[in-house]
Automatic annotation (TrEMBL):
Compositional bias per record (Low complexity), positions renumbered to this chain: 406-416
Keywords: ATP-binding, Kinase, Nucleotide-binding, Transferase
Compositionally biased tracts (Polar residues): 387-405, 424-442
Pfam family for this entry, one: PK_Tyr_Ser-Thr
PANTHER family reported for this sequence: CYSTEINE-RICH RECEPTOR-LIKE PROTEIN KINASE 3
Organism per entry: Brassica rapa subsp. trilocularis
Residue span, Protein kinase domain: 65-359
Protein name: Protein kinase domain-containing protein
Organism lineage string: Eukaryota, Viridiplantae, Streptophyta, Embryophyta, Tracheophyta
Region of interest called Disordered, as start-end residue ranges on this chain: 361-451
Length: 451
């Protein structure tokens, strides 16, 4: 005998027990033993625990991958919206067949990534292989990606300062989780506004983590897509293929500055990779240039920025659309964090743990920054013994000692092991270099492993 409820569950393909009466719960196991569909049920439950979706379920969820269900076309393939039999909305990513990855390898990677669960990370609910098709099934995130809200619509004002601050904090938490708390340390490698999805409450969720492992390009399909996105990549990664968690910190810093200013950091050229940050900093400096006391040409930019910072004028880089809602102390904190994160020297960038901690502090408790160092002095400072309160944070543009811009924040940068600056992720995942000796971990030598 099958209860009305179990009939419904079966029809919906659900495995989650629905509330039942006390009596029903007691007799349920006995009833099920007499159910001839028991084996099917067990199989289905086992399949779901393994996170395997049948192709047929995904076909009907997406109405046979109907173009009207297409959410977009990413570098790895098209993404479709679907609804599972149990009513859950999903985003199904159909990996393009340029991936050279074998089925078993894909399944192993997907299984591993499906264990990555965090509020600020788009959860991978499962996967599917069917012939040559490889599909990934993600939770559906209702709002658009951050880049669409910030740059591609007139919706910028919909996310006020409070929301932007929460988005910054959420991304920091998600990244901290990926770097230090996930089952395996995951270096995302492609943190950008387009990979931050926003749910209906504007909670940010980091998308596309682990793609380098799920989508391995054929040598004939060299596609730098997997390696990251122009404008967000850390200079040491762009120029030398050196990958560490600090590459993600750099990209995070770019996103933070974009969120604060509402301006996209896009003017990046592969021929002049070290211009990334310069191009970013220029508009900021020009925004600040109207301050009569500190004309742009008066001296090194970092000193100018420091003076402006000391004068409490950091707010002037803020998106005018949201100026009214802004908390100046929080804006200042975020500008500092953004600028610390995009420092040229990866060792100087704070670890995500330190950033997440700074963001949860009451702004009034933040240490006062000291005068910025001059270009070239930062290594000297570090040699003189980093400590918990050591003053670091000299900011320099990638690949160049010119154009330093920023302030000193008493912080631990993750290059040492003082409180708040521990870098277990770094130690779990040594810095790797594309094309260097350590790239032997990547049999194709094209890019570093991401975790
Ligand atoms: N889990 C999801 N929920 C809702 N929409 C999603 C989800 N994942 C992806 N999308 C949407 O699907 C589209 C394609 O996403 P995808 O991540 O594949 O590529 P992209 O971010 O647009 O580009 P790229 O691959 O270059 O990063 C985007 O519009 C994205 O917002």
């Amino acid at each position: 005998m099958v209860t009305k409820h179990s009939q419904k569950s079966s029809r919906l393909g659900m495995t989650k027990p629905k509330p039942m009466s006390f009596f029903q719960n007691i007799i349920k196991p006995f009833k099920r033993t007499s159910n001839s569909g028991l084996e099917d049920d067990i199989e289905r439950i086992a399949a779901l625990e393994q996170k395997v979706f049948s192709f047929q379920v995904l076909v009907s969820a997406t109405k046979d991958f109907n173009p009207t269900h297409k959410l977009g076309q990413g570098g790895f393939g098209p993404v479709f919206k679907g609804r599972l039999p149990d009513g859950r909305d999903v985003a199904v990513k159909k990996l393009s067949q340029a991936s050279r990855q074998g089925k078993n390898e894909f399944v192993n990677e997907a299984k591993l990534l499906a264990k990555v669960q965090h509020r600020n990370v788009v959860n991978l609910w499962g996967y599917c292989t069917h012939g040559d098709d490889k599909l990934l099934v993600y939770e559906y995130v209702a709002n658009e990606s951050l880049d669409k809200v910030l740059f591609k619509s007139n919706r910028r004002s919909e996310i006020d300062w409070k929301q932007r601050f929460e988005i910054i904090t959420g991304i920091a938490r998600g990244l901290l989780y990926l770097h230090e708390d996930a089952p395996n340390c995951i270096i995302h490698r492609d943190i950008k506004a387009g990979n931050i999805l926003l749910d209906e409450k504007w909670v940010p969720k980091i998308a596309d983590f682990g793609m380098a492992r799920l989508y391995q390009e054929d040598a004939t399909h060299v596609n730098t897509r997997v390696a990251g996105t122009n404008g967000y990549m850390a200079p040491e990664y762009v120029m030398h293929g050196v990958l560490s968690v600090k590459a993600d910190v750099f990209s995070f810093g770019v996103v933070v500055l974009e969120l604060i200013s509402g301006q996209k950091n896009s003017s990046f050229s592969m021929r002049h990779p070290d211009q990334t940050l310069l191009d970013w900093v220029k508009p900021l400096v020009s925004l600040l240039s109207h301050v009569p006391l500190f004309p742009v040409r008066a001296g090194p930019k970092h000193r100018l920025a420091y003076k402006l910072y000391k004068k409490g004028r950091t707010n002037e880089i803020l998106d005018t659309e949201i100026a009214a809602s802004a908390d100046p102390e929080q804006v200042r904190l975020c500008v500092q964090i953004g600028l610390l994160s995009v420092q040229g020297d990866p060792h100087q960038r704070p670890a995500m743990r330190r950033i997440a901690m700074l963001l949860t502090r009451k702004p009034g408790h933040l240490e006062e920054p000291e005068r910025p160092g001059v270009p070239g002095s930062r290594y000297g400072r570090r040699r003189h013994g980093p400590s918990v309160t050591s003053s670091v944070g000299t900011l320099s543009t990638p690949g160049s000692s010119a154009g330093s811009f920023g302030s000193n924040l008493k912080t631990n940068t993750g290059s040492n092991t003082g409180s708040g600056g521990v870098t277990p992720a770094s130690s779990r995942t040594p810095t790797r270099s594309v094309g260097g000796a350590s790239s032997s971990s990547d049999p194709h030598g094209k890019r570093p492993m991401s975790y």
